[in-house]
């Protein structure tokens, strides 16, 4: 019965636990207002770190330092790249390797921090799948060929004596949502999904009497494959050179408040879900239940540099272009 699923992204995520659209709150209307001259343009995609940014922009620390600053969500990579290039996105959450790529291509950005240490999970409707050893011969649905999740998964398979080209069949989709739809429609029984869609797939499955299981964390498997800690420095905040020139002290304030807001999100997931749902246009309970799996922790880019460079080098072994062909220079990593 799921072959006919044609849900848009907003409808799918809202419908994961509720019926009808999520009502827009006054704070969402405020976030759409024109920012003042003192304000900073703070952006992020609809994923875990942006939950913290929703809280951050409402804090007195940020409003005192940059009155009128608001948080907005970017929806596509093209929108993000255009916003960074124009300078409108003075601070934005991006995948860390995207930040490296932008820097290496000459865009005026620096990495401020890492805010999430991995959002990737293997999900399955097959109860027999409980580990990597159970996926031999299976079709695994994966969003985005040759993007980071694909490269990480291939590295993990190789470290476990498996080949992504011989031992499994990877079916690529154009979006993560499409991968969820394949899973719930029964076209495949196993998928690699990011949060919060991994959690959304579980909740949407419950509503259709489909048991979607969280089989394993790719963060844990990455740690086992590399001999390092079980975390992936997946996404963080980049800041524009224009902001660093215009408000040189603001980025330090931002980083400190990002850490406080992230702690608040981790300790108050239900409240965080209610706060962020209108910003991200994702149902609050989905956000709440995804937070424990979002590995939210703020580390300055300078302090995370060793982890970032190992991550970049590992990705570049398979696809040098993903980071723009080389490791970023020293100036990329801000010390805050």
UniProtKB/TrEMBL annotation:
SUPFAM superfamilies (alphabetical): Periplasmic binding protein-like II (SSF53850)
Annotated signal sequence range: 1-31
Domain of life the protein comes from: Bacteria
UniProt-listed InterPro entries: TAT_signal, UCP027386_ABC_sbc_TM0202
Keyword list, A-Z: Signal
Keyword ATP-binding among UniProt keywords: no
UniProt cross-references to PANTHER family, sorted A to Z: ABC TRANSPORTER, SUBSTRATE-BINDING LIPOPROTEIN, ALIPHATIC SULFONATES-BINDING PROTEIN-RELATED
Name recorded for this polypeptide: ABC transporter substrate-binding protein
